Structure prediction request, 461 residues.
Amino acid sequence: MSQEITRFKESKDQLFQPVKFEEPRGVFVSTYGCQMNVNDSDRMISLLEMLNYTPVQQPKDAALIIINSCSVREKPVHKVHSEVGRYRKLKLTKPDLLVGVAGCVAQQEKDQLLKDLPAIDFVLGPDNIDSLPEIVSKLHKAPEERLSAARFKHQEAYHVQTLVQNPGVSTFVNITKGCDNFCTFCVVPYTRGRERSRPYKQLVEDINKLTSRGVKEVTLLGQNVNSYTSDCGVNFANLLKGLCEDTDIKRIRYSTSHPKDFTEELIKISADYRDKICEFIHLPVQSGNTEILAKMNRGYSREDYLEKVDKIFDYLPGASLSTDIIVGFPGETEQQFNDTLSLIDRVPYESIYAFKYSPRPFTKAAKWEDHLSEEEKSDRLHRLFEKHKIIAHKLCEKYDDQEFEVLVEKRDEDRGNWSGRTTHNKVVNFVGGENLVGKFVKVKILKAFPLTLRGEFVSEY
Ligand code: SAH
Ligand code: SF4
Ligand code: F3S
Prediction:
C-alpha cells in the first residue's frame, strides 16, 4: 500500500499502444454532479471501448471502476470517500480491479487523494479525460504504479474525443469549459480552470456527426453558455442562430445561462427560431436580494434579473423557467431570505433546485465569519420548498388537456409507456402508438404533475 505516485505524462501519439483485451471487460462508472460530468462519463466509456471495455451495472462485475466526482458541495465529496471504502473491500477479492477517481474532486485534491486513499490507482482531472485509455493501458502493464493526471490544458480544441459513440436521441455537446466568474461561494473556477470556448466550425462538425448518427436534440453545455465567444467572434446568440441554419439538428437546448450575460439579442433569436430552440430557460438566480447577490459576486441585482425575466415573456409568452437558489449564504438575514421567497412568487418557475450554502475550499465566502447554523439553513430550505410546491402545482395546471409536440426518447417496457420531452423540458409519459423512439409526436395531456405529464398518443408529425 505504499506505492509511489507518478505524475502521468502523455506519450506522443505514435508511441502510445493501447492494450486491447481479447475478452470484453466491465467498466462501472458512478457519476455525481452536473450535466457536464454526465457527458464526461459517457465520453470516458466511449474512449474505453477502444480497449474492449463495456459498461456494467454493478461494481462487482467490473474490472475497472471510475468515480466521476463533484465538489460543488461537501456532501458529494464525502460520497467519494465512502464509495472508495467499499471498493477497497472489493479489491480484496478482486486483486486486479482498477479504481480511479475522476472529475472535480480529483482536480481539487490531485496527489493528496492518492495519498489519503490507498485503494485508488489513479486520479484523472476533467481536462485529462483523453488520456484515460493510455492511463488504463499503463496500469495494466504496471499494476503497482499509481498515476496522477490532473493538469489543466489551455488549448481551445480541448477534446480529442468530443462525442459519445452511441449518443441516442438526445445528447450533450460541450461548447465551453471552465469558468471565469468566481462567484464567492463556488469551487468550479478552481476545479475546471479558466473559461475556453470551442471553435464554431468544430461545433458545426460535431453536430453534423451527431445528426448522422440519429441524434435529434442536443443540449449545449457550459458553466456560463452566454459568455461563449468563438475564435471567429461568434457570440452565443449567433452560435444558436448558426446551428439552426447550418445543421440539420431538430432541437437545441442549452445550460447553464448566467443572468448577467443573458442578452435581449439571445431572447430575440430564441423567438425567431422557436421551432428549433427550446422554450425552456434555466436561469439560476441564487438569491432574490440585491445585497446578497453583490456579496455573491453575481454581477446583477434583483431588478436586473426581473427585467430579463419580463423580456423573456415579452418575446416568448409560452416559455418555461427553472432556477438554482442557495439559502443561508453567510450573513443572510431573515429579511434577505424573504426577498428570495417573494421572488419565487413573482417569477413563475416550474422547477427550482435549491441548496443549503456549503463552504468550499479556495472560495472567498468560506473565509467569512458570519455563517448560519445548519438548523437555520435547513429551516429556510424547507420553507422555500414548501412554498414552491404550492406554486408548482398551480403552474402545471396549464398543461392539462393540451396537445404538445414530444420528442420520444425511450420505451419503458415495465410500465408499458413511451417517454419523451416537450420543448418546455417537461417529461411526458404516454401510451399508444408503435415504434416511436426518435420521432416527434403529438400527445394529449391527460394529467399534469409538477415534474411530469401523463398523456396519450395522438399522431406522428
Ligand atoms: N454555472 C452555474 C452553476 C454551476 S453549480 C451558474 O452559474 O448558474 C450548480 C449550482 O450549485 C449553482 O447554481 C448553485 O446554486 C449551487 N452551488 C454552487 N456552489 C454552492 C455552494 N458552495 N453551496 C451550495 N450550493 C452551491
Ligand atoms: Fe460557479 Fe459562478 Fe462560475 Fe457558475 S458562474 S460555475 S456559480 S463561479
Ligand atoms: Fe460538480 Fe464539477 Fe459540475 S463541482 S457541479 S461536477 S463542474
In short: Residues 374-395 form the longest helix (22 residues). The chain has a mean pLDDT of 94.
